[in-house]
Amino acid sequence: MTPFWFDISDLWIGTFFYGIYLVLFCICIYILLRRPHNLGNIVLLITAVVLFTLSTVQAVINLILGSAEIDNLNIAFDQLEAAGNIIYGVNNVVADGLVIYRCYSIWEKNIYVVILPIISLLVTSVFGVDLRLPSSPFFALSFATNVLVTALTAGRIWWLYRKARVYLKTDVQRRYLSAIAIIVESGVLYSATVLAYLILGAIPGAEIAQGPIFQMLTQVMGIAPTLIIVRVGLGVNVQTSSRNTSTDVEKGRHF
Description:
Transmembrane segments: 12-33, 42-65, 85-104, 111-129, 135-155, 176-200, 212-234
Oligomer: single chain
Keywords: Membrane, Transmembrane, Transmembrane helix
CATH class: Mainly Alpha
Distance between the termini: 69 Å
CATH topology: Rhopdopsin 7-helix transmembrane proteins
Number of domains: 1
Strand content: under 5%
Radius of gyration: 20 Å
Shape: globular
Order of helices and strands: HHHHHHHH
Helix content: over 70%
Mean pLDDT: 78
């Protein structure tokens, strides 16, 4: 495949995934606006808007850069590319910050659990914003952060489920399992895309295929946490349940 067709595929893939994100974002906003305007939902709403706005700007920049390469347009290529990279880094911080916050909430606001992910996020943000640094550590750290936070969050919910399933009704059990599934699926969605990007970058001669994967990453970065927001908006939330699990278990022992 020639570089021209790679440029075309970049635009197609970027547009396709942006369309998916647009639909998901609209559903997300619709759900959150219909729910009570408490602090938690307001935070989710603001985060969703910020993520989508950054992804939209990134998509526009990628579209301009891709069109310029295809049509040989004379534009400030380096400046636009640098701006796109910075926006990507900021978007990554917001997206990872959201999943770390969810993990923190599931662990009943135990700050010690998320110290390592927070440190990893801070280091990742430095590599993402400072254009003088290599990009590989940025993607590797982002991958590690997502895998760690996904494991911590899903592991906590699974532990709560195992601890209290004897005393839980069937529908509540399904809620726990559904929460585990969506967290793992969202984490795998982004982590697998990052891993593919890193693998292609490590294979000699395969670097050109990183372009389409990067276009996917630009949108998947927002799609993955937005999926969690949608499920939280639909009521798939075990945060409150996790705070009451210990009490439920204690009550069950008296029966």
